[in-house]
Design goal:
Layout lengths: L6 E4 L3 H13 L6 E4 L3 H11 L2 E2 L2 H7 L2 E4 L6 H8 L8 E4 L6 H8 L5 E5 L9 E7 L5 H11 L3 E5 L5 H9 L1 H18 L4 H22 L3 H8 L5 H11 L2 H18 L2
Parallel strand pairs: 1-2, 1-4, 2-3, 4-5, 5-6, 7-8
Antiparallel strand pairs: 6-7
Helix pairs in contact: 7-12, 8-9
Length: 267
């Protein structure tokens, strides 16, 4: 698809804004991006920041060659009911709602539109996101290229069969929250050992940033890197033994299954 494509963005929250920035970075002209946003102050903010346009949802949808649905799962039904009478059947619909299947989108629209399902995550906001895409029936090679192209401006992408999207949600979609919770626990642990909140936070955050960078750039597996830093009978070994005694692998696996189950319930 040409980068002069007309794009409608439904949902102008934090993720919606990140995707607008990605579209522009990919090469879509700001004047070709139109949002439908009921909050005038928010619409004005995005117009001033990016030079995009705003329009009522019917007018916006009717002119769009690609529609980005960046709405909450519980709002998807009402949004689809609102746009179905305006959408061009050739327009590609890209959904970012957790748990909402391609079939559910297609059935609700009943217009035969090609649908792409995407699970992004919040590091998209800083260009370090992880997005998994699943391609529905009728999506053209050009449409696929457009979706993968602009999402590459948000970080990294993978393509997965749709029946694995709930697993993706439990891994990368919810994953940043697991990381943040672990950071919270480390800061609390450091403070209990006598460090100030400021020092504990700085030590923990930079340790996490550095470890992630090392894992991403070294070409070594997490297992190898863990083993490299763990001396027999040393301090790290003592900490890891405590993790294992508390069955950390089971704790994480159970949490991820809970997230996956909830994603299935949202369908």
């Amino acid at each position: 698809m040409s980068k002069s494509i007309s794009v409608a963005v439904i949902g102008a929250g934090v993720m919606g804004e990140a995707l607008i920035a990605a579209l522009i970075s990919y090469g879509v002209k700001p004047e070709s991006i139109t949002i439908s946003e009921k909050r005038k102050d928010r619409a004005d903010e995005l117009i001033n920041r990016y030079g995009i346009r705003v329009a009522e949802i019917g007018s916006n949808i009717s002119k769009a060659q690609a529609v980005l649905l960046v709405v909450k799962p519980q709002d998807m039904g009402s949004v689809l009911a609102e746009i179905k009478s305006f959408i061009n059947p050739a327009t590609v619909v890209i959904t970012f709602a957790a748990g909402k299947t391609i079939a559910s989108i297609s059935d609700a629209l009943a217009t035969g539109n090609p649908v792409v399902r995407v699970m992004p995550n919040t590091p998209t906001l800083v260009g370090a996101g992880m997005a998994a895409i699943s391609i529905g029936a009728g999506v053209s090679d050009e449409q696929r290229e457009f979706v993968t192209g602009f999402l590459s401006a948000t970080g990294k992408t993978v393509e997965v069969p749709e029946d694995l999207q709930d697993a993706v949600t439990a891994t990368s979609g919810s994953g940043p929250a697991y990381f943040f919770r672990f950071v919270e626990a480390m800061i609390a642990g450091a403070k209990s050992l006598g460090l100030s909140h400021e020092v504990a936070t700085k030590l923990t955050v930079q340790t996490m940033v550095g470890a992630a960078k090392l894992l991403d750039e070294s070409g070594k597996s997490a297992t190898t890197l863990r083993e490299n830093v763990t001396s027999p009978n040393g301090t790290t070994a003592a900490a890891l033994a405590s993790f294992e005694s508390d069955e950390i692998a089971k704790v994480v696996a159970d949490a991820m299954k809970a997230a996956c189950d909830r994603s299935q319930e949202l369908a």
